[in-house]
Structure formats: structure tokens, C-alpha cells
Amino acid sequence: MSEAVTRSATTSPGLLASLDPLLREWLPRQRWFAGKGRPVTGFSLVAAVELVPADGPLGVHHLLVRAHQPGVPGDCYQLLIGSREALPPRLAPALIGHVEEGPLAGRTVYEALYDPRPAEVLLDALRTQARIGGLSFERDPRQEIRADLTPRLLTGEQSNSSVVYGDTFILKLLRRIVPGTNPDLELPLALAREGCPRVPAPTAWLRGEFGDEPYVLGVLQPFVQGAADGWELALDELAKGADFTAEARALGRATAEVHRALARALPTVTLGHAQLRGLVDGMVERLDAAAQAVPALRPYTPGLRTAFTALDDLSAEGRTWTAQRIHGDLHLGQCLRSSSGEWSLIDFEGEPSKPLAERRMPQPVVRDIAGMLRSFDYAAHSAKEPVPDWAARCRAAYCSGYAESGGADPRTDPVLLRAYETDKAIYEVVYEARNRPDWLPVPLSAIRRLAGPGPT
Fold this sequence. Notes:
By secondary structure, this protein is of the alpha+beta class. It has helices spanning 15-26, 116-127, 183-193, 230-239, 245-265, 273-293, 301-316, 356-359, 366-382, 388-404, 414-435, 441-450; strands at residues 6-7, 42-52, 58-69, 72-84, 95-98, 108-111, 131-132, 135-139, 151-154, 160-165, 169-174, 176-177, 204-210, 213-222, 228-229, 269-271, 321-323, 335-337, 343-345.
């Protein structure tokens, strides 16, 4: 095991003030920026660490900055800012702007992850377990990290940024940062201790300690070489008119394996009437808010409400359920199929818009299952000619696979499944109405089904 490298890192005062006008223009254009549609009125500095001194050809600053916007609490973002005297043409897509004053005056700043050299700096720090300022680069000493891996930035992500190193590792840097224990590191570490092969075991990770607040900032995991993204794979099979039920069944088995391992690794709780009442109340509140926001939902509101009252009634009769740690945001895009045909689950961060404490709460596993069932529906409606029968077959195969691998078949608890699928579809209606109105018919078709007279 290599010895940890410790060095101090100082950042000149005035750095954020000099970057402020450039970040106000650049940050809202990033795909992972959550505050779109509202102006950024300013920034406050949470932490700044100089990874590479800016007195040479290349400087690299690691920043945690809080973006202030009217009417909402400011979100904290992780930024990796490179600086050069002039930007080579290959880095033109990474441009943030030219700094006029302050410690970087006269230099051009850019998104450093586009540049192989700063990405190499991060991997080397993880390999040597460096401690720089408030940053701690930690690793599993049982896993080797070679120093000669060529980095490349993945450009298709939505809410975070990932760098692949030589088809061996993938480093995910979280963008929207909150203090506390992040499930994107917590759960894969717990699954690794259980020997669960369905989730790549973390190789190394980046933490920050600034004041009394601990942060998880990034996770390095093995890269599943030649893997197919579940969403893209489903769309490819749809385009060819191919059957996907065998894959859906295998994915159901993989999901059940992960759920069983999480139940062994972390505490489970029993949900009685009092606990279920709280969950149901939250579902009803989200329904009412959604009906106010999206008029197209209002005709279905009475029928949708029965999905939640039926669950409350069942609980009042004495029915209980087990809750445990779950994935929290499961859909086809969070699954990878290796070239050997094995499925893996990735991205355990949960829904980034939810508070961290809520994302770490035990939940019925059916919440994950409902998310995947909705994902099959979305895939079916993404084809040139929608094929709802394809979704129905995949949904059934997924549930069968889940039961084959030792989980309870979710269809044997139709009231619970209907409630969670309804809650998910209501969320989708609001999201699509706000962001992709052309997609609104997809969740509305599910709403019509779920608002029927009884469990589906």
C-alpha cells in the first residue's frame, strides 16, 4: 500500500470574485446545473483548493461554490477549474472565459475535466492517497490503480460528470454537493462487503472536510468494458422488433440480488399503520400539488387518490411491510449489461433533488420496482411506432425474474405496487409538463390506466 501524500494548498483571496462574472454565464448552461430558468445573482465560496499551482503553464483549482438564485436556497456545486495563458483549440468546448483581474488575471479558465492532465492529477492523487487542503483521496488498498491510464471525459451525463481511465476505471464526480453520507459511496461499499457482484465495488473515493461538514465528492469504480446501457439496449431491440423479455427477466433477477444484499448489509424496519400513514400523506400531497400545476391531470385525480387510500385502508387493517435501503432512482439507464450478458446496477445517489436524509431512508423495495416498470413504459413509447404490448411483456418478465431470484413477486401485492407506480407517474407528469411537454402523453397514458377502479 502506498503512503498517503499530504500537502497544504493555498488559494489566493479574490479568486471567486474574479471568476464571478464568467461563472454566471457558464454555470447555467451546464447540463448538471439544477437551477435552470432562474438567474444566478451571486456566489459564495464553500471551499477552494489549489491542486496545481497557477504560476506555471497549467493551474487547477478545486472549488465548492454556492450559487444564489432568487426564491430558492442556494445549491452547492463542485467545480474543477483549469487555467492557462491560452487555450489550445482541442479545449475550445471547455472554455469558461478570460479572467480580467484577481490572482488569475490574464489567464483563460476552462472546465478542467476536458483536459487529460488535470484528470491524471485526480487519478494520481487517488492512487497515492493524497491529502491536499481539505480534500482526502482514499482507496481500497486491495485494488491496484495503474498510473499510465489515459483519461477521457464522458459527455452524455445529466447530473454529474464522469471520466473513464483507459477502459479500466470510471471516476464519477458529483456536481450538486450536500454534506453528509452520500449513498452513491455508502451503498456500493456495503454491497462490496456482502460480496454482491451486481454492483462494481468502489476502488477509491474523494472526500472533503471543510469546517464541521464532511462531503463525498467522487467515486472511482471499475469500468464495465463493452457494457451496454440498459436504456440504449432496449431502444435498439425495439427498433429491430426484437423481443426483450429475456433481458427484462435477467434484470429482475439482478435487482432482487441487490435488494437481498442490501437487506443483509444494512438495517431493515417494519412499516405499520403510523409509518404508512406518513408515506400515504406524502403521496396525496404530491398528487394535489401536481393537479394544481398540470391541469391535464385533474380529471384523473379522484381515481388516482384511490390508489393511496386503498393502501392506507390495508394498513389500517393491520397489514405491515418491510422497508430497507434501496437504489432510490432505478430505471433502465441505471443498468449495464456486460458483454457476457450479466447485468449490473449503477448510480446509487438517488434522486439528487431530494434531501439527503430522505434518500437514505429505508423504503419498500417496490419503489425501485415501480421505477423500472415505468422505464419499460417509457422505452415502449420512445419507438417510432409505440408498442405498449412490448412494455407489458417486459414488465411481466421483470417481475417474474425478481421472484425467481428470491424476491417476493411484486404482483402479489397489487395495492402497494399500484400506489408506488402511481406516485412515480405523477412525478413524471409534472417533470414532463415543465421540461419536455412533447413527452407528457407518455406518463398520462399510465395515469389513465392507474386511475382505474382498482389495482392494476
